[in-house]
Write the structure tokens for this entry.
Amino acid sequence: MKRRTFAALAGAAAFALTAAFPALAQTVTIKFSHVVAPDTPKGKGALKFKELAEQYTDGAVVVEVYPNSQLYKDKEELEALQLGAVQMLAPSLAKFGPLGVQQFELFDLPYLMDGYDDLRKITDGEVGQTLLGLLDDKGIKGLAYWDNGFKVMSANSPIETPDDLLGLKMRIQSSKILEAQMLALDAVPQVLPFSEVYQALQTGVVDGTENPPSNMFTQKMHEVQKHATVTNHGYLGYAVIVNKAFWDGLDPAVREQLDRAMAEATEYANSIAKEENDWAMAEMVKAGTTTFHEPTEEERAEWIERLRPVHDEMASRIGADLIQQAREVVAAD
Ligand code: LMR
């Protein structure tokens, strides 16, 4: 009896599948791997994409989301995507250098943007699209930009002005711009995978780091960082990318529904990013383990003065024209 019910259900599911997508013989699985907590802008965006993709394809596509570096750490996940072991990722824009598309490090330039409106001008315009197009040659297709937020600088000693970073070991993502930024502060940059940051801070392997509040809070870094300054000196966000051969090989009707799901998930992720970061900041302030410093106007000017030279210093890596184009876009009304 039970078996017959199951068979009937399976038959109905197969009928639904073939009715919606006649060319599909079986379900398509998308493994979406990422390194942050589910309760972050990226984590929530990934779950929204799963929900919509499965709904719009009537279950013909199943999306498996693996958060928190469960499957792969930073560098490995990019290799896994190229090998086809996973189909979808949303790495931070600071992590595309090892793929040979270091132009994405544009987004790491300190004080390039003053908030989400400036960011949107870059991601939604020609600069953003040009950058995604550079991925094609790497066997990767760029689908969308997902926001996180602007970074605070944290450490175990007060870091109110740039001089306070002298000699501190600071964890960074694998971006040469971020390396140059820490060197400009006379700090010692150290690249570490995201999954290792909490422990490195806890054990003193590094003294400090930089993060948007959502990442700092969900990884409990505020428990092992006594001080932080709300510098908002740089941006951290993502490009959602897929294995190109996989994507191009999908049934066009399925891909159309996935594009629709991605567009809506993107809108959703980008609409919650700021409030997620504001919430995380409020939670950390409430927790009271970190003292947050809001720079004065004067201090902010000092941070800018110290960090802006990184733009010219790193122009040859990213492209002076691209930097100029981004600056003009940001300055335009
Ligand atoms: C980091 O390594 O600090 C971030 O890229 C993690 C993330 O994906 O937000």
User: Anything to note?
Assistant: The chain has one domain: 25-331.
